[in-house]
Structure formats: structure tokens, C-alpha cells
Amino acid sequence: MATHFELVCIDCGHHWAFAPFARHCPACQGEWFQVSYDYSGLARSLLPGLTQRPGAGLWRYLDVLPLKDVGHIVSLGEGSTPLIKVTNLGLMLGRSNIYIKDERHAATGSFKDRQATLAVSLLKEAGVTDAVVASTGNVAISYAAYCARAGIKLYAFLTSLVVSEKMRECALYGAQVVKVTATYDRCKAIAQQFALQRNMYYDRGLRSIAGIEGMKTIAFELAEQLSQMLPPRPVPEGGPAAPPWRAPDWYVQSVSGGLGPVGVIKGFQELKAMGLIDRLPALACVQAEGCAPMVTAFRKQAKTAEPVTKPATRIATLATGDPGRAYSLLKAYIDQNGGSMETVTDDEADRALHVMAKMEGISMEPAAAVAFAGLFKLVRDGYIGPDDVVAVNCTGHTHTVPAEVLGEGWARDFVPPTETAAAAPEPEGLLAALERLDQRVRSIAIVEDNPDAVRLIRRILQAKANYQIYEAYDGYSGLDLIRQHLPNLVILDLMMPRMDGFAVLDALRANPTTRDIPVIVVTAKELTPAERARLSGQIESLLQKGAFMDDNLLADIVQALT
């Protein structure tokens, strides 16, 4: 347990005794304050304490959480979520150190469980029996589950834009759901007024202690997990030893009200204060374009964000029009430590959702996909370097897949032929019907010496259409394969052993039977002007490895096959 913690005002710096539901600084009456700990003492005691609490989830870090009695902990096993290194996505983006902090493993499927476990534990410790929360979905679900476990009655105010499945889940946990036909900011005001009139606890989001303190454990887990997955950073000869843990170079998250990243950066700052990491990561905050008050202000270098009164995004969980103080806190961090704020469209988020599901087997909620769509832009625009270690928060799981995400044609109907005893044998029975289902299959040959690259290209093709795929891992084998099968298209690498791609291409064009087969070159080689001239007129398109997404390749394939 933490032996000493207090509150400190972020406006005037005043320190005073910890009170879990404090509303104002006694010195300046400000509403913005955080918990401060004895960091010098924790630097000596935190790591030894962790070895005594293996596998305890978020509560492994109780030395830096403001709860006085462990007997009041309300837990559903939150925290200790996996850190997954992506492979296919790394190949596509040319970034080999991308990691996903997979918060889908939380009890209710989202990272908001970190906030709820501490908040409800503090409520239980204080003897609170009724609570009010306003939410765009995930917070209400998390609080409803933890309040059910603690025996606390929850009133959950949700906007009418929240999908009905999430509202029903809140009700299933026993919360009183209040659907408000208004914006989220208006919903918050109504919920706060309801709590005030009935003298109930109202969760104030960013201004609540529990939210930030719970979210900071993401930073603690990330730094601890990366230290186990990556070697220590090199240190100058004769310099101080590397710290025991390691922060990423970038932390990327989708942002609505901003509580999550504000908590995470506090966690990294505490880790640095204790000497457990030696640097702070750059921060990337990604918002939906239809409700992006932070990004709009950031691009203008404005000190405050101008509220969005009419959000225009179908991603309801990100439709916070007024981020308030969160924007200035996040901007100040980025100004000092590096990073960016970016917007993505709903369609770009949908595309990222598809990419992550089809390329990495990770299905996520649209709000989480916003972070990955932002990652794609940050890589494309050169913010994130090839060797940077990047941690992306996959904030939650998608429990239902909206129809508009898949579009038309995602399933194909198959009705087996009717069998009648009296009917004569039909030439088109079950096998013939299955063959019709397969329709015409186009064939594609992949000639590439890197098995990982072959796997990636094959996965892109399989996820999009029903192609017959042939594979070869060097030039001679590839040329034999092409001559044997005469595919409709060749995807060719240039740098291969025994016979490079240039020689394969020359041989194809010299043979009348293979002369007209279209070729797409996918290569990591930086081509000279002479090499580009050699390819000119011989290939359909040229894609650079690590700089193309699946849609780029598929668009070129469709054009080549039509």
C-alpha cells in the first residue's frame, strides 16, 4: 500500500491532505488537482513490492494507488493486459516495433475498467451507496459491472446515440439507464444536476481522482512489459546504467474527453520521477474528424479548444464536443515532449478496423480503430521513424459489428438443391452447386524470397477475394512456376537469390506465352533512375515495401486484372 499520498493543485501548487472526493483547492478554489506520492521512497520500494504480487493485475501497483485499505478493493481481474507485437502490420508500414496494448481483455471489454475498479473501490471505502455517471457507452458499462459487485446503485446517463446493445448491458448489471436525447456534453450537465439534487456522488471524469490514477497503470504495465520484450537502450560508455524499465518512443490513443491519455502521461511522468524509465514518450492523440475540438485547436496552436456543438461522427464513443482542460494538459505535454494530434474520418477508421482484423486477427471497437487509422497517417507523414518503438492502445473490443462496417456482399447465399426421391438424377447436384459458388477464380503468382512478405501479400489477397495463389521463393523457381501455371498476374520482388526480379521480368517478356502477363513489383530496394527506366513499360505498378497499405496493392491488382 502507498504509505503517503496527498493532493496537489495543478494551478497554484498547493499541497493538502488526501480526500478522495475533493472538489476545490483550499488555497485557490481551483478544480484541477492530482495525487502526489513519495516518489523518492517508491523508487526504492516499488520493484521489490511487485515481486511479491505476481499476476495481481492492475492492483499490483497498489503502492501508487490512493486506496487506504486493500479490503475495499473491488476487482474483476482488470489490468495485466497483453502487449502484442504486430508482424503483418509492421511489414506493411515498414515499422518493425509496433506493439498493441490489448485492453480488450478487460472484464467488460474496454480500458475503462481501470477507471472503474479504482473509482468504485474508493466509493466502497467511503461508504457510498448511490452513484451517477454520464457516458457514451464504455464508462457506463464498466461502472455498472463494478457497482454491481460492490452493491452500489448506479444511475447511468447515456446519449441516445449509444448503441442499444451497450444500453442493455448496463441495464443487465442492474444500473438505472437514463437515455438522453442530446449531445454528450448536455448529457453530462443533466446527470450532474440529477446527482446534485439528490446529494449523490457524481463522477466528474477528468476532474475525478480515480480516473487519472486508474489510467496511469497503462503506462506502468507498458514500461514493465517492454523491458521484458526489448533490450535496454544503449548507454554511453561510462554513463549511468540503463533504468530497469523502458518507455516506448510513441504512445498512440484515440481521444474523446482525454482522460485516458492524461492518466497515461501522468504514469510515465511518475515512472521517470522514480528513475524506472529515462525518457518520456511522444504522444499522439487521434480524434474522429466529425468531432475533433482538440485537433482543430492544436493545428491553430490555440491555448484552449473551441467546443463542437454538433458532432458529426457515427463513432458515438468519441463524440465529446467540449474537452475542457484536457486539451491544454495534453498540448502542454506534446509541446514539451513531442508528438502530434491527428484526425481521421469515419471511413478511415472503418478501413483500419478491417486491416487489423484481417491482417492481425484483432477485432476492435470503432473508437479503437481510430487510433490505428491515426497511426497509419503518422507513419505516412514521417512522424514515426522506422526504428521507433510504438505502443498503440486498443481501447476495447467490438461486441457487435455494425452493418455499415461490412457493406454489401460480405456473405454469399448457398441453397443446396432439393432432393426428391422420385426425381431423376440431375447433372447439377451438390458438387455442381458448390462449383458455382466458387465462380471464376483468378490466379496470382507471388515470387518473393521473404516468407513473411509472402504471408502478408497472401493474407491481403485472401481477405479480399477468392484468388488461386501460387508461391515461389527465388527467381528460377518463380519463372518455372509462371511458365507452368500461366497465372493472370505476377507479384514480383526484385532482390532475390540466384536470379533477381529484373532477370525474371526479362525472361517473361522474351517468351511469347508469358509476354502479356501483367506484373506488379513490390520491393524494398531504392531504385536508381537507370533501374526505373529498365522497368518502365514492363510492369503495371511499383510498390515500395513498408510504404503501402492493403488497399494500394488491391487497387493495382484490380486494375491489372480488368
Radius of gyration: 28 Å
Number of contiguous helices: 20
> N-to-C terminal Cα separation, in Å?
67 Å
CATH topology of the domain at 83-107 and 211-230 and 244-404, by name, is Rossmann fold
Main β-sheet, spatial strand arrangement = 4-5-13-10-11-12
Present the secondary structure layout.
Elements: E1 5-9, E2 15-17, E3 33-37, H1 39-51, E4 83-85, H2 88-93, E5 98-102, H3 112-126, E6 130-135, H4 138-150, E7 153-159, H5 164-172, E8 176-180, H6 184-197, E9 201-202, H7 209-215, H8 217-229, E10 250-254, H9 259-273, E11 282-288, H10 293-299, H11 325-337, E12 339-344, H12 346-360, H13 366-380, E13 390-394, H14 403-406, H15 430-438, E14 443-447, H16 451-464, E15 468-472, H17 475-485, E16 489-492, H18 501-510, E17 519-523, H19 529-535, E18 541-544, H20 550-561
Parallel strand pairs: 5-13, 6-7, 6-9, 7-8, 10-11, 10-13, 11-12, 14-15, 14-16, 16-17, 17-18
Antiparallel strand pairs: 1-2, 1-3, 4-5
